[in-house]
Amino acid sequence: MATLPNPLPDPASSGLDLPPGSLVDATLDGPWHEPLLWYADGPAAPRDWTELRAAGRRVGLLPVLVTGGHRGRWPKDWDLCPDGMTYPGDHDAEEVLADYWTDHADDEAGDGTADHKSGEEQSGGPGSWPGLAPVPAREAAEDADTVAAGLAGVIAADADEWLGGARMALVPARRSADIPAAIGWSGPVNHENDVARLCAVLRSWEDRYDARVVVLGFDTMIVSVGRPPATIEEARALAAEHYAFCPDTIDQAPPHDIDLYAEKAVLNQEAWSFWWD
Asked: Which position among 60, 66, 119, 229 has the lowest Cβ density within 10 Å, counted as fewest Cβ atoms?
């Protein structure tokens, strides 16, 4: 994967003054040839995201909150598999989602999921992929990175309640959407072995919704959204993408209905949460 030179082996030489923390090079296949990420030993504070983003960005490091969850599984125990990752830029988001839709959306299609295609008539019969959702008509109220920092601050202020704890991490990546692939994250392994394909979708959400990856856990992700859908039609169109991206978000969690999910979890929401069983 094409990235900037990794400054994590010697942060001080890049002018980074990091708090006490750990470098992670442990993978399913043994130690990686360089650190995949750094994460702090202590809990994140509300302003840590902004400060570490400013320090890390100039040397090719991006922030993300990591959580051990209520089982205490921190990144060193995440079964990372960077050797199995391709490059996100080699994948087309719509092709990826269409593949997932074909594999997983049959049941939902019968409930009308595939009818939500904005801007044109639905092509094909029931169950066909409805296509990418349109860019929301409403302009973003704030810069995407400001929204991400705000969400990170809210989570850090009450991380034990939200996540069972959260710590700051830095990852060598060019853009937020690439963070999961950069570390070889295997959280969605029962859905997708090559998380770079999911990162291609995250890149598309960056472009259309000003999305940023804010939290990663063992099998969970929280994304900030600077430009969320503002109409129910926009939300329903995007809910189909969410279902293809992470079927467990709807299949394994109430309300188990894609239209209600669009209304409750997508419409005007500045954070999206995903969990893979």
From this structure: 119
pLDDT digits 0-9 by tens, 136-166? 999 998 999 999 999 999 999 998 877 878 9
User: Which pairing describes strands 61-66 and 211-216: parallel, antiparallel, or unpaired?
Assistant: parallel
Cβ-Cβ contacts under 8 Å for 160 (sequence gap 6 or more)? none
Give the amino acid at 202: L
The answer to whether the CB of 226 falls within 8 A of the CB of 136 is no
Report d(CA 207, CA 129) in Å as an integer: 21
The rounded distance, in Å, linking the Cα atoms of 43 and 50 is 15
Phi, psi at 147, each rounded to 5°: -65, -45
Please give the span between the terminal C-alpha atoms of the chain, in angstroms, as a whole number.
27
CA distances from 208 to 67, 205, 221, 242 (A): 27, 5, 19, 14
Q: To 10 degrees, the CA torsion angle through 56, 226, 116, 204?
A: -30
